[in-house]
Structures are given as structure tokens and as C-alpha cells.
């Protein structure tokens, strides 16, 4: 005979199982849903999944709506459980409130991974469900859901984007050789192999923005787009204090959204089709950049150089992840790699390149 304790343990196990599926589904929205969170939802009847969904690209239906639309027999929703990684919204935005739709279909039980920190939600969706008699369970796989929603949470809890640092360094600790070893025309000096380059382009497709300093632009003339992967190119953020980037350079080609941070107020140097943010001269550090990125509704940014820009964010403790490639090439002299301390959460080899991922805990 199954005791009440056994039944509770069994239910908790099932709840975790279906929440894992929600997280798995939610990852399909990576790089397309922002500024909305990438949510996953599963609807279960008699311990079987009858509908599932994830957040559509921004402006489209939310995960709960897609999951309910996938249910063939809507009548059994009144006997089902909805699992969702984040609290259902309770306000009108691009789409109607998901909490209202749940109430409309009289779903009796909702299991939620995390409470939504957005000031337009913040428990109101949960309360709306409870007010109608719905059983609401909160916090199932909460740690895993927080990790999944890290971009959205950083934006609303820390009032800044989720910041990923990325660089490649030689086996002896340099990110570039001395200038005399470089070609005369501006172009990157590659440390890593082709598969590592492809992985970086995949990462670019997953984040809202990519940020570099002036030195990187002038030395490498990068495009900062997605070429070796399928996906949307991120918004380019260029830190160009004195507007020294030549108008012919790739980052100013207007092929993707580009925002230049500068201290120059002379708008005659501005280019039509490029956005400009003017920073105060004494207050043009990483904190100011993060404040403006938050104002621009950018929830995640990958910073790809150069060494000075990367180190400034490290020194300001404004970073969440660092993804560091170490190649086999040796430079002996050159531009030293940034110095960073963090918790190593993962490392692996991609061909001959070692990838180390640090978290700022």
C-alpha cells in the first residue's frame, strides 16, 4: 500500500521530471525571444505529456499559449497540470496575459520553476491563479531554472545585462603578438582552430549584443556578425570614445544594428543609420555602459575584446561568465591576456584548443 509520504515523494519526482522537460524545451528560444524570457511549458494529464511549447520569437505567443494550443482535446485541461519554468505573466504586452488563459481553461494545478522578478508580474500571476482556486507549486528545480533564465534575471534583478567575456590566448598567455608580427592590413591574428571559431559564431547568435573596444576595431576590422552558424547577428556595441573608427570599416557598414558609445558631442561626425550614446567624460566606465545597455533593453552581451576593455569589466566586477580559449601557439611577447579569477565550471578540448568556462560567483 502506498503511504501519503510515498505519494508525495512520487509526485515530487514527477514534478522534477516534467520541469526538466520544460527547461529542455525553453532552450529552443535562445537568441530569439529577448527581451521576453525564453520559457518552456508542458501540460500533463495522467502522467503523460499532452502538450508542450516554448516562447516564440519576440512578439509571438508565449510558451503557455503554445503548449495549450498543442493539446488536441481542450476538455481534459480541467484535469491536467501545467508545468512552466517561469511565473505566467499577468499583464498585457505584445500578447494577452498567460495567467488569464490558464484561468479560462480551468487548469487546476500549475507548477512553476521561478517567480518572475519583472515589476509588471512579480507574483501577480501566481496570485491571480490562486484567487481562482488553482493549486500553485513554486520552486521545482529552482536552481536549474535560475541558471536557464540567467539573462532575464540579471537584467531585472541587477539592472544590467548578463555579461559574457570571451577571448583566445596563446599557450604563453598573450592574446596577440607584437605589432611587427602582424600583417600591414587590419585583420585578426587567429589563435584557435576552425571549430572554435564556429562555436564563437554560435555564441554570438545566442546573445542580444556583442561589444568591443576601439583598439580591437582598428587592429582587426572585425565584422562582429554570425557567418559560421545559422542565426541572427547580435547588435554591435562599439566603445569609441573619440570616434576614431574610419567610416569604411566593417562595424559601420549598417548591415546590422550598431550602437557607438562615445564622449564626442559633435554630431557632424555621426553616420546616418548608426546609433550613438554619449557618455560623460569622467563617467565613461563599464558601470555607465551597463546602465545605458539596460536602458536600451539589452539583456545579454558578449564582450570579445580587446584586452583593455575586457580587463576594465573584470576590474569593475561586471561579468558573469568568462569563456577562454587557449591555443597551442606561442608568441613570447605581445599583448598580455586579461587577468581574471573565477570558479571553473567546465573545460574541454576542441581539436587542439582548450576551452575554459569561469563563473563569477
From TrEMBL:
Q: Where is the CMP/dCMP-type deaminase domain?
A: 13-137
Listed under catalytic activity are: 5-amino-6-(5-phospho-D-ribitylamino)uracil + NADP(+) = 5-amino-6-(5-phospho-D-ribosylamino)uracil + NADPH + H(+); 2,5-diamino-6-hydroxy-4-(5-phosphoribosylamino)-pyrimidine + H2O + H(+) = 5-amino-6-(5-phospho-D-ribosylamino)uracil + NH4(+)
Which keywords does the record carry? Hydrolase, Metal-binding, Multifunctional enzyme, NADP, Oxidoreductase, Riboflavin biosynthesis, Zinc
Identify the EC number(s).
3.5.4.26, 1.1.1.193
In terms of superkingdom, the source organism counts as Bacteria
The similarity annotation says:
In the C-terminal section; belongs to the HTP reductase family. In the N-terminal section; belongs to the cytidine and deoxycytidylate deaminase family.
Q: Indicate whether Metal-binding appears among the record's keywords.
A: yes
Record flagged with keyword tRNA processing: no
* Pathway field: Cofactor biosynthesis; riboflavin biosynthesis; 5-amino-6-(D-ribitylamino)uracil from GTP: step 3/4; Cofactor biosynthesis; riboflavin biosynthesis; 5-amino-6-(D-ribitylamino)uracil from GTP: step 2/4
Q: Which cofactor does it need?
A: Zn(2+)
Against PROSITE patterns, the record matches this protein to:
CYT_DCMP_DEAMINASES_1 (PS00903), CYT_DCMP_DEAMINASES_2 (PS51747)
Q: Name one GO molecular function term.
A: diaminohydroxyphosphoribosylaminopyrimidine deaminase activity
What species is this protein from? Answer: Maribacter chungangensis
InterPro entries (alphabetical):
APOBEC/CMP_deaminase_Zn-bd, CMP_dCMP_dom, Cytidine_deaminase-like, DHFR-like_dom_sf, Eubact_RibD, RibDG_C, Riboflavin_Biosynth_HTPR
Q: What is this protein called?
A: Riboflavin biosynthesis protein RibD
The free-text note explaining how the cofactor binds reads: Binds 1 zinc ion.
Please give the function described in this protein's UniProt entry.
Converts 2,5-diamino-6-(ribosylamino)-4(3h)-pyrimidinone 5'-phosphate into 5-amino-6-(ribosylamino)-2,4(1h,3h)-pyrimidinedione 5'-phosphate.
Amino acid at each position: 500500500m502506498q503511504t501519503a509520504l510515498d505519494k508525495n515523494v512520487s509526485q515530487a519526482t514527477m514534478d522534477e521530471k516534467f520541469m526538466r522537460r520544460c527547461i529542455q524545451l525553453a532552450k529552443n528560444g535562445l537568441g530569439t525571444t529577448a527581451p521576453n524570457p525564453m520559457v518552456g511549458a508542458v501540460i500533463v494529464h495522467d502522467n503523460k505529456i499532452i502538450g508542450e511549447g516554448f516562447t516564440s520569437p519576440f512578439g509571438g505567443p508565449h510558451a503557455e499559449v503554445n503548449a495549450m494550443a498543442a493539446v488536441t482535446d481542450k476538455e481534459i485541461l480541467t484535469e491536467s497540470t501545467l508545468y512552466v519554468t517561469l511565473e505566467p505573466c499577468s499583464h498585457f504586452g505584445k500578447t494577452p496575459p498567460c495567467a488569464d488563459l490558464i484561468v479560462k481553461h480551468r487548469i487546476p494545478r500549475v507548477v512553476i520553476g521561478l517567480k518572475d522578478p519583472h515589476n509588471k508580474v512579480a507574483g501577480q500571476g501566481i496570485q491571480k491563479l490562486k484567487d481562482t482556486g488553482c493549486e500553485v507549486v513554486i520552486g521545482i528545480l529552482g536552481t536549474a531554472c535560475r541558471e536557464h533564465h540567467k539573462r532575464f534575471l540579471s537584467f531585472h534583478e541587477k539592472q544590467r545585462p548578463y555579461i559574457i567575456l570571451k577571448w583566445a590566448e596563446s599557450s604563453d598567455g598573450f592574446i596577440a603578438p607584437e605589432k611587427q608580427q602582424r600583417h600591414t592590413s587590419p585583420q585578426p591574428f587567429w589563435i584557435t582552430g576552425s571549430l572554435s571559431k564556429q562555436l564563437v559564431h554560435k555564441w554570438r547568435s545566442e546573445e542580444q549584443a556583442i561589444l568591443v573596444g576601439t583598439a580591437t576595431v582598428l587592429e582587426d576590422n572585425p565584422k562582429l556578425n554570425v557567418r559560421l552558424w545559422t542565426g541572427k547577428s547580435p547588435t554591435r556595441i562599439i566603445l569609441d570614445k573619440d570616434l576614431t573608427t574610419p567610416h569604411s570599416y566593417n562595424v559601420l557598414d549598417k548591415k546590422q544594428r550598431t550602437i557607438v558609445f562615445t564622449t564626442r558631442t559633435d554630431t557632424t561626425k555621426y553616420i546616418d543609420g548608426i546609433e550613438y550614446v554619449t557618455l560623460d567624460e569622467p563617467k565613461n566606465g563599464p558601470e555607465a555602459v551597463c546602465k545605458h545597455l539596460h536602458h536600451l533593453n539589452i539583456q545579454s552581451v558578449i564582450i570579445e575584446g580587446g584586452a583593455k576593455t575586457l580587463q576594465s569589466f573584470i576590474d569593475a566586477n561586471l561579468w558573469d561568465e568568462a569563456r577562454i580559449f587557449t591555443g597551442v601557439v606561442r608568441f613570447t611577447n605581445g599583448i598580455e591576456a586579461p587577468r581574471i579569477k573565477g570558479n571553473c565550471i567546465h573545460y574541454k578540448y576542441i581539436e587542439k584548443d582548450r576551452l575554459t568556462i569561469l563563473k563569477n560567483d
